[in-house]
């Protein structure tokens, strides 16, 4: 159907939610907005779905959430035994507009199929939802969140019974059922009082918080260090108006970090995110208020978690009193080195140890792994692939998981959660900062020591935005061109090999081909003769094409100069492609 036909169907719905009906009236005459809302349904894939909130088949609303849940319910009806189905679904939600309403609607649609739900009583971090799936032994989990996106967004994330986001093979089956729900208004939810009275909807909270926090407590490695140094170390924590305030402060206090301060204004769970344009710890502006408080307190470390508390960013106080932000790759590297060194010092470093990172994350971590005799496994972008490797290792009993991370500020210390976990990471990063403080150093000194030991690595992620339905079409055309073209050089440095994850083939400069073992994906990665790598992929959650550069040099200045040259070359190449579309 055309966008106008879809629009007319929505206009004619007699019992349409009043707020959505009002929004429809406001959109009248705005053809671009109407096309974006009604031309194409929300894509539902391995990451679930995410988009702006509003009326229409292409936006997040009670009807698109209901259709996604209906698809999950139909899958469970047809593929599970009665016993398996009764395991139910855990449901969490963040501090965004409509998150609570969407979460309860998920429970009501599941309940109409006699599928039990276990819904948190209030906002909770995404990693705690992952934990809840495992702790309660549910068949699946749903998290209502748009993570670090701006306030206009919300999302529906689907988790499997291992607590990880479902990998492609499993999620593709459910996706077929979701896409079969073509009439959004045919989904009929059950009433919440009926579900509560018939034990088809359960409210969870502290009964999950306590075991989750007990597991988080096991992340601490050196309790004596925390007691002697960490307990007196000053740090600032901000949850950026999100879910971290519920659990993050309890985790820090439980670990023994008694001198931390929260940014009061940002400890309010406010869906407007009034103090930040983008509630994303990757952006320096997200630290403005933390830096202000940090200077007042002379805090050694500032930590920010995004609204669903799966990502963590940090800034470190320098000798001049100013704060230096650390990248996700730097944070991961100091955490990883600390973990492996602690195991080695204790004499219990597993011989079958493994770590997992996304293929667009720093090669510094690979060097660290090699130094300790630990296997580093590269996977596609998406923490579900890291969770998948943990599950495989457990099933085969052939590897011991030690650490996992993505460059986009996501880390996992211990696998009682199967997604990136900023609560675990907050506690361990504070301990690592205490360790350096005991040596008269800072976390930033720590990353410099790693560079001296392993080489000077630097990375950068660039984003090209393409909004609206037309933007999606442009992105597709650009990626077609990217796959078709094989540049022979960037910034005057020869390309040594090209990894095309769509064809699953690596092509060397001499024309020889080698199969790639990772799953099929819309990703290109270029290996240069100087050890630099460059990658291009469309974001799975935002209207962006992401460009990655990882390089190294004889010292920091050399590495950063090379990075600047590659950034210019890469931007010029993408701009040239755009002109041909």
TrEMBL record:
Residues 42-180, 211-315, 328-454 form the Alpha-D-phosphohexomutase alpha/beta/alpha domain. Its cofactor is Mg(2+). It catalyses: alpha-D-glucose 1-phosphate = alpha-D-glucose 6-phosphate. One of its GO terms (biological process) is glucose metabolic process. Keywords: Carbohydrate metabolism, Glucose metabolism, Isomerase, Magnesium, Metal-binding, Phosphoprotein. Transmembrane segments: none annotated. Pfam families: PGM_PMM_I, PGM_PMM_II, PGM_PMM_III, PGM_PMM_IV. InterPro entries: A-D-PHexomutase_a/b/a-I (IPR005844), A-D-PHexomutase_a/b/a-I/II/III (IPR016055), A-D-PHexomutase_a/b/a-II (IPR005845), A-D-PHexomutase_a/b/a-III (IPR005846), A-D-PHexomutase_C (IPR005843), A-D-PHexomutase_C_sf (IPR036900), A-D-PHexomutase_CS (IPR016066), Alpha-D-phosphohexomutase_SF (IPR005841). GO terms for molecular function: magnesium ion binding; phosphoglucomutase activity; phosphopentomutase activity. Pathway: Glycolipid metabolism; diglucosyl-diacylglycerol biosynthesis; Lipid metabolism. Its EC number is 5.4.2.2. CDD domains: PGM2. Residues 511-559 form the Alpha-D-phosphohexomutase C-terminal domain. PANTHER family: PHOSPHOGLUCOMUTASE 2B-RELATED, PHOSPHOMANNOMUTASE 45A. Belongs to the phosphohexose mutase family. This is Phosphoglucomutase.
């Amino acid at each position: 159907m055309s966008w106008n036909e879809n629009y007319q169907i929505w206009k004619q719905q007699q019992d349409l939610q009043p707020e959505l009906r009002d929004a429809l009236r406001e959109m009248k005459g705005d053809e671009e907005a109407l096309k974006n809302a009604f031309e194409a349904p929300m894509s539902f894939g391995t990451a679930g779905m995410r988009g702006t909130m509003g009326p229409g088949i292409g936006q997040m609303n009670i009807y698109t959430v209901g259709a996604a849940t209906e698809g999950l319910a139909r899958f469970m009806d047809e593929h599970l035994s009665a016993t398996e189905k009764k395991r139910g679904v855990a449901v969490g939600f963040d501090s965004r507009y409509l998150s609570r309403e969407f979460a309860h609607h998920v429970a009501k649609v599941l309940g109409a199929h006699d599928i039990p739900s276990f819904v948190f009583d209030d906002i909770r971090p995404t990693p705690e939802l992952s934990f809840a799936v495992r702790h309660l032994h549910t068949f699946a989990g749903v998290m209502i969140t748009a993570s670090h996106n701006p306030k206009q967004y919300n999302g529906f994330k689907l988790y499997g019974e291992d607590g990880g986001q479902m990998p492609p093979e499993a999620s593709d089956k459910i996706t077929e059922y979701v896409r079969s729900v073509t009439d959004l208004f045919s989904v009929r939810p059950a009433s919440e009082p009926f579900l509560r009275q018939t034990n088809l909807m359960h409210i969870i909270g502290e009964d999950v918080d306590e075991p989750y926090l007990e597991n988080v407590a096991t992340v601490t490695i050196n309790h004596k260090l925390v007691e002697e140094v960490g307990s007196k170390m000053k740090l600032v924590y901000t949850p950026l108006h999100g879910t971290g305030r519920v659990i993050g402060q309890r985790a820090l206090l439980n670990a023994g970090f008694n001198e931390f301060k929260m940014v009061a204004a940002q400890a309010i769970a406010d869906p407007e995110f009034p103090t930040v344009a983008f509630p994303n710890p990757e952006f320096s502006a997200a630290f403005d208020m933390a830096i202000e408080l940090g200077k007042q307190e002379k805090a050694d470390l500032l930590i920010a978690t995004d609204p669903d508390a799966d990502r963590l960013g940090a800034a470190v106080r320098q000798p001049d009193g100013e704060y230096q932000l650390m990248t996700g790759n730097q944070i991961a590297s100091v955490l990883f080195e600390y973990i492996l060194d602690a195991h080695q010092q204790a004499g219990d470093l597993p011989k079958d140890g493994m770590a997992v990172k996304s293929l667009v994350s720093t090669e510094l971590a690979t060097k660290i792994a090699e130094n300790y005799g630990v296997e580093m496994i590269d996977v596609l972008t998406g923490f579900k692939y890291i969770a998948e490797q943990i599950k495989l290792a457990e099933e085969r009993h052939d590897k011991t998981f030690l650490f996992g991370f993505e460059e986009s500020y996501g880390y996992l210390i211990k696998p009682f959660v199967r997604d990136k976990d900023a609560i675990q990471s907050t506690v361990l990063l504070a301990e690592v900062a205490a360790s350096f403080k005991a040596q008269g150093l800072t976390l930033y000194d720590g990353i410099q020591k790693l560079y001296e030991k392993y080489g000077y690595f630097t990375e950068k992620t660039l984003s090209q935005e393409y909004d609206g339905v037309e933007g999606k079409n442009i992105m597709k055309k650009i990626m077609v061109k990217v796959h078709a073209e094989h540049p022979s050089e960037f910034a005057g440095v020869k390309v040594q090999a090209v990894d095309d994850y769509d064809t699953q083939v690596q092509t060397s400069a001499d024309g020889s081909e080698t199969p790639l073992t990772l799953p099929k994906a819309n990703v290109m990665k270029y290996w240069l003769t100087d050890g630099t790598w460059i990658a291009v992929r469309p974001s799975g959650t935002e209207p962006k094409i992401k460009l990655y550069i990882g390089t190294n040099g004889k010292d920091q200045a050399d590495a950063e100069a090379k990075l600047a040259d590659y950034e210019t070359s890469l931007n010029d190449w993408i701009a040239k492609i755009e002109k041909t579309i």
